[in-house]
Request: fold
Amino acid sequence: MGKASKPLFSYRPFWAKRFGAAPVLPMSRAEMDNLGWDSCDIIIVTGDAYVDHPSFGMAMIGRLLEAQGFRVGIIAQPDWASADAFKALGRPNLFFGITAGNMDSMVNRYTSDRKVRSDDAYTPNGEAGKRPDRSVLVYSQRAREAYKDANVVIGGIEASLRRIAHYDYWSDKVRRSVLPDSKADILLFGNAERAVVELAHRLAAGEAIKDITDIRGTAFMRSELPADWSHIDSTDIDKPGKVQAEPDPYQAQPDCEQKEQRSTEVEAAGSVKVDLPIVPARSQTFIRLPSYEVVKNDKVLYAHTSRVFHLETNPGNARALVQRHGNRDIWLNPPPVPLSTEEFDPLFELPYTRRPHPSYGDAKNPAWEMIRFSVNIMRGCFGGCTFCSITEHEGRIIQSRSEDSVVREVETIRDEVPEFTGFISDLGGPTANMYRLLCKDKTIEESCRRLSCVYPKICKNLGTNHKPLINLYRRVRGIKGVKKVVVASGLRYDLAIESPEYVKELVTHHVGGYLKIAPEHTEQGPLSKMMKPGIGAYDRFKQLFDRYSKQAGKEQYLIPYFIAAHPGTTDEDMLNLALWLKKNKFRPDQVQAFLPTPMAVASAMYHTGYNPLGRIRKDSEQVSAIRGLNHRRLHKAFLRYHDPRNWPVLREALRNMKREELIGSGKNCLVPKESYRELKQNRMNKRHSSGKKREFYTARTTHTRAEGKRTRKH
Reply:
């Protein structure tokens, strides 16, 4: 783990480089024959339709491996009823690469109310049902059935977020890591470009996959642990009492400060011998987490595990993690080192066709239609929102492209995409305005263990200069043939207000009438569990937005998004949010309810009732969770207070909350009183319901007596 990361494009290409780049990565034997291939070195199996565009993970990884000289085939959305579909391209020489696609398969298929979705944006014509539940498990097992001796590598967001024992919302229980259940040889987590390239080259050089244990960003099963590593036991929660000499896994003090403190202590001691604790090298230290068998039944230790896990996510100081599953251990190496700009740029300039595979014909792919004219300028997010999985997957360190690379991609769209009309639909990423925002000091960045750089307030060491992003906007909209550039990615407004010049640039030139941002809530209780700023930051941003829109002579609107049923939210919180919405004349069309995704901090709150943002003890802060379907619907109803279909449930809730004054026709009321027609209908419904019950009871009694007479007579 201590070795330096090799530059992504510095490897000597594999011999198959002589074949050159394929017009499109093959999905059939016929396409392989046309390319002159007798076999594939790597076969990527994905739950998405194959779109050869850098916004689709299978395309980026496939084209990257092709650039390294490997022959890469794609099996997209295979029929998982048998192993036959997994034999379509033959046995891969190096490995099967298994991914559920751009989305977790369970999030893709089910709503937050656990209802099956009627469509799938990543499938031709939006057709639902083209992927199985827990796609990584199913695809891995079928690939193993197809070729028992083939290497199986799993990755993508579904595998990444299930790399340790995790709470599963859909089964409402703690499930094992995806690694032992899939029977895969190795798991690649996070953005896995470095790991997959090194793995492919080492396998091509003849190494056995079971012997490759030192690649960052990988997880694998072990029967025995290395004897030359230091070990921190974190299988139990902190207990009051004497401070132990061994390192504290919760320790959030930067290493640089720790070293400075130790030096000061040594100098103060002079010639006197002082016994100071020896801190083992982090690169040769692993932390043992509570086992799966323990955390599946112990909510306190599950919350403790979540906290330790999230404190070990900075590539600069993270230690390896170990978690017991049965009689074997899952070993997680530290996260991958982020890509430099020089490595990041070429990923987006590989020979993509920027459209779905020709085999789909004229079928529409909704996800592609949405992003076909968008350009990704960065990845990662240091916001640390507890309900979001971006940080767990992509990391907190921002990786940004150069201006030149972004300009070249826009020019490629202009010159090579026939449908382009001069409209760039988005210039952004996970967060639109984190482009080139980094820690001011590399040493501090590598030693920091904060879960967020912007909560509870913006870190003084974080650079918030939006000038590079402003320059990028100006340069892109100045490209010949570009008529309009819109920013549609999520905006971090608490960062934006640090640069009024940026807000002016954005509002004047890059808003398409509406700008969507996500305050998520107005009340401090739920906001503190989300790690989101207070509503005051939104108010300041809105003032700037309105001012610069007026100066530009444009009628533009700010559309705020909010979350219902988040852990730590009370009925009173939702009521106050509804009153705020009404006061500000917002009537949300769509409502987002909290969905507990694997390994997110908020999911741990939902499952355990504890807050992993602080130290975990049995008397730690309790967090309420909105579990029942009716309760979740009530919280969503507060957000859509204006919908008459929600008025009955809101009236009932307001009466239970002793807030009847909010029911009526006054300007301060939330919902109107029942109309005469509603009252009459309710009375009729009650009579009808009770009458049916009496009729059913009478009929059932008569029937039973008749049956009894017949039985006795017989």
